[in-house]
Structure prediction request, 284 residues.
Amino acid sequence: MKIIDAHIHFSNICSFHETAEKQSFVSYSKEGLLKEFEESDVILGIGMGLTETKGIGFPDPEAKTPMGLDLDPTLPKNIVYSVGINPYTVNDSSLISLEEELKKDKVVGIKIYLGYYPFYAYDEIYHPIYVLAEKYNLPVVFHTGDTYSERGLLKYSHPLTLDEVAVRYRNVRFIMAHFGDPWVLTGAEVVYKNSNMYADLSGLIVGTEKELKNYSEGRFLDHLRHALVYCDHYDRLLFGTDWPLAPIKPYIEFIQQLIPKKFHEDVFFNNALRVFPKIRKWIL
Ligand SMILES: [Zn+2]
Prediction:
């Protein structure tokens, strides 16, 4: 089965290097990523645009909008990306650069980091971003749920806060990254209720192959199993890993166990094509 990984990272972020290298379960490099893709039949990865200026770490109030992928000087052919928005650096001139960026073939979406930056999805600061998303027919991906930094603020990343933008911007497709985990039942309701809301299943467990196996057993994932069944919209769920925070092949197996087999083609491939129309060019 051919797979699209709709959520990876490919940026020079200290905490990602630390997670990947100190525990040494992935090689956080271009070579490391391409090797894991090849071993797992992943034919395309969608990177989340993100940068940090030296020493501050992420979230970084000074990072320039739009944020791209800076792990390697060259981008592999099978990596495209969603440009990252730092609300502190959204202004007239950065909006012009952003619009230019959105015209590039490799740019297939826009990423907003709720919780990392203390603004709600429906804050007016993001209004011009949604207008551009509609103009260029690009989806907006929101970080939701737990933040991978103690400096994050969870009230901004709660999935219920996405309902308001889904209603106000009916012509924009939104993706709730991580399904709002751990508030996945709320996330499920927001997806169920809004036909323009999708969710990706990345980053639900961060760690090694062994940790993925351990957490899959017992009650740890009961909330997620409940939410998937309640949501009942396998046409709007997307596979993603959050690499390098989990190794790719074991993460595929982990998600395969959670999704009924008849929906695998949709969740692992077809849905991403519908949500990110520009990726067709890179795979078909
Ligand atoms: Zn991520």
Summary: The chain has eleven helices and eight strands. The longest helix spans residues 264-275. The chain has one domain: 3-283. Residues 3-283 form a domain with the TIM Barrel fold (CATH 3.20.20.140).
